[in-house]
Amino acid sequence: MTIYLPCLDEYEDSFPDVESALTEPDGLLAFGGDLSPHRIINAYKNGIFPWFSEQDPILWWSPAKRAVISPHKFTPSKSLKKHVRRAKLTVTLNHATEQVIQLCASTRPPEETWITQEMIDAYIELAHLGFCHSVEVWREDMLVGGLYGIKLGQLFCGESMFSIESNASKVAFWHLCQHFAGVGGQLIDCQIMNPHLEKLGVAEIQRTDFLSQMTILQHEPTNRDFTTCMLKIDEGQ
User: Fold this and answer.
1) Sequence ranges of the chain with CATH classification 3.40.630.70
2) What is the pLDDT of residue 1?
3) Interacting residues of 56 by C-beta distance below 8 A, sequence separation 6+
């Protein structure tokens, strides 16, 4: 099957209208361009994200359905609550963003990861600029789980998560939801649904609904910055 896609201009950061994205493969919008901070942030602001394999050109996506969750609506399972009480883990925000990004890439089989070295370098640069944030789960001084993503106002765009031990990524996600809700965050974008996200309570909405919410939320500030700190769970909330 022949696919015709717009090629992004090297010198301009604009994107085609997301309504022009393909239905097969779902959401494929354009190729080319670069992974400069300005282009990536412009993509997120328009409901678009990069996703490609090592052998591919840079591909840009905006699927017809978006996997999202309100951080206020996340409900941890009884087993996860029990695990957190017993596991003696420490959870932090923005303490080891570079490590989290690298582990999200290296803990997956090479054929399954889209986090190429080019992507790693791009999101580390975004972290240095204050856009990319991470949640880290520690057992003593060992990083055993975490996640990272892009924060735009009251919207958090999750990119990836990893677990070296059981439930560590769920622990990171629970802490993200509670902390983000606590600072005034309203929506977490998980991009594309998978069985792990579905178990966490993530649901799909139409692209038009996501864009309507995203357009407002990205311009609404949270009541506190997403600064480096220790995160603790309040099980009563």
Assistant:
1) 67-231
2) 64
3) none
Comparing CA positions, the residue from 213, 205, 146 lying closest to residue 186 is 213
**Third-level CATH fold of 7-63:** Alpha-Beta Plaits (3.30.70)
Class of domain 67-231: alpha beta
| DSSP codes joined into one string, 152-197 | ETTEEEEEEEEESSTTHHHHHHHHHHHHHHHTT--EEEEES--HHH
Q: How far apart are CA 208 and CA 93, in angstroms?
A: 31
Q: Is 82 helix (H, G, I), strand (E, B) or coil?
A: helix
Neighbours of 77 (CB within 10 A): 14
Residue 209 neighbours by CB distance under 10 Å: 13
* Block residue for tokens 């949270």: 222
Helix (H) or strand (E) holding 49: strand 49-50
| 3-state DSSP assignment of residue 84 | helix
Query: pLDDT-based confidence at 108, cuts 50/70/90?
Result: confident
User: What is the structure's pLDDT at 124?
Assistant: 98
Beta-strand runs (E) in 62-131: 65-69, 90-93
The secondary structure of residue 12, as a DSSP letter, is: -
Domain with CATH 3.30.70.3550 in the chain: 7-63
Distance CA 22, CA 61 (A): 9
* Cα–Cα distance list, 176 to 51, 135, 203 (Å): 23, 7, 17
Residue 157 and residue 62 in contact, taking contact as beta carbons nearer than 8 Å: no
pLDDT at 237: 52
